[in-house]
Amino acid sequence: MEQQIKDLILSSKEPLVFKNYINWGLVTWGLPDWRNMLKNEELLFRCGTKSFTQEPQWERTTGTKNAPFEEFISFTESAPNGWMYFDYKYLKDCFKTSKELKKEINWGLFGFPELSSEDSTIWIGSQGAHTPCHIDTYGCNIVAQIHGRKQWILFPPGEDLKPTRIPYEESSIYSKLNFFSPTIADFNGVGNCRRVVLEPGDALFVPHKWWHYVENLDTAISVNVWVPLPEDHEERFKEALVQFFITQVTQNLDFETKKVILNPNSDQEIGSMTLDVALDVVNKCKDIFSKTRTEKRPISVRNESFTFVDKIPVLSSQDFNKFLENQKSRFGNTKNETEKRNFPEIINLIEAFSHPEIISLVGKKLSNQVAYDFFKLHKNLNSE
User: Which of 150, 170, 273, 342 has the greatest number of beta carbons closer than 10 A?
Assistant: First the structure.
C-alpha cells in the first residue's frame, strides 16, 4: 500500500488530507510527556502578538526568547495576548539527546522509508502562533499533526496573492496579504481557497508551490518533511538568480534598510557573499538544470482510492469572506487599517526585479541560450 500512497502523492495536483493515518507513538504524547522528554533544554521561540497589524507579522518584526518547555507550557496556560513559536527547526540540529522522539519518525507510511527524523522539521507553538502565507519553491510537503489542532489555508499556484521576495529568504515566496489580522479589501478578487483543520494523527500533503497560511488553533505540535522533486533543479536555478540580485543590491545599503529586505536567517549568508561567489552559484545551478531538464517524476499513476484520504473542497466566496471576517473580528477596533509603513524606493525596485514572473523570464532566456550554445557546439563537432 505504501507504494500506492507514494504514487498518489507524487501524481496529485491538489492537497490531500490523511485522516487519523499517523500511527507514531508521538501522537499519544501529552504536553507532560514532551516536558519530561525535553527536560531543561532551552528552545528559541519566536514571539508575536495577538493584535491587529497592517502587515503580516514577519520574523524580523517579532521578538525571540530562549525558554525551556516548562516555561512555554506556563505561557500557554496564562492565555496572554501573545504567542510563542518554536518553528521550522530541523530535528538533526536540536533535541540531540532525545532519541526516543527521533526514532518514532518514519515517513515509510507515505512510501518514503528513506526519509527520517534527520530530514524532518518540528513546529511547537501556542494558540495563535502562525506562519505568514507563502510558497515553498523546493519539493512538496508532508505534514504530520502530533498534538493540538492546526488550521491550513491553501491556494493553488496560479492564485494572485500579491507575491513578494521581501523579506528575502531562499526558497520562500511570501504573500503581502495578512491572513492573521486581515484588511478585507486587500482580498478582493482572491478565490480558490481550501481550508482544513488538522487534528492529532492527521497528515496533509501540500503539492509543489501551493500557497499556504498556517495557524495554531490550540497549543500544537507538528512534524513535516519536504520530498525532493525533479523540478527542484529549475527552482534552484531561479532561486540562485534571485539571490544574485539581492546580494548585489544590498551590498551598500544601510543596516536598517537591509533589515527590511532580509529575513534574519539570510543576514549572514547574503552579507558575506561576494559577486564572484554569487555568480558561481548561478552558473552551477544553471549547469545542473541544463543537464537534468528532461527529468520527470518516476511514477506510475494508479486509480486506487483510500477511505482515509480526502481532497479539500474549495470554499465558496461566502465561506471565504466569513473566514476573513472571523479572523479580523478577533482584534476589535482596527482604525489604523489605512496606515502604511513608508519604505525606501529601493524596495519597489527589488520587488519588481525579483518578482517570480520576471525571474522565470530571465531563467528561460538563460536556459535557452545554454541550449543554443550546446546545439552550436554539437553541430561544429559533427562538421569537423
Answer: 150
